[in-house]
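Quiz preparation item.
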């Protein structure tokens, strides 16, 4: 049972419960998708960009910076030309994997019928 007097904080913001803090830190359209894509290991910026349809360079860079600040992912910069940058989940980030897997299973309830079966019904 949680302590009713406990407070939680990050970057000088105070939250009355851990759930509110977690939702605040992970909110946004792309953060959970980025974490999901990194669950299997390191990825380069370009790999992430191409694996997330619709995300802009600006938004990907911003979301990656925020996730790094939180401590969910680690950024590796290699001193080569052209620059090589990779991203990987930290232990804190990997702690989200079971939660994301459960969300994935829950989301399967909303799977649309396969395109082939839709076309064959015409």
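Solution:
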């Amino acid at each position: 049972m949680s302590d009713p007097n406990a407070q939680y904080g990050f970057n000088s913001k105070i939250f009355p419960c851990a759930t509110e803090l977690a939702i605040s830190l992970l909110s946004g359209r792309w953060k959970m998708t980025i974490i999901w894509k990194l669950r299997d290991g390191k990825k380069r910026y370009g790999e992430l960009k191409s694996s997330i349809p619709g995300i802009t360079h600006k938004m990907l860079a911003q979301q990656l910076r925020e996730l790094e600040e939180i401590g969910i992912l680690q950024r590796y910069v290699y001193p080569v030309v052209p620059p090589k940058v990779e991203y990987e989940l930290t232990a804190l980030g990997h702690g989200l994997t079971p939660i994301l897997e459960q969300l994935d299973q829950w989301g399967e309830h909303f799977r649309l019928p396969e395109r082939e079966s839709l076309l064959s019904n015409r």
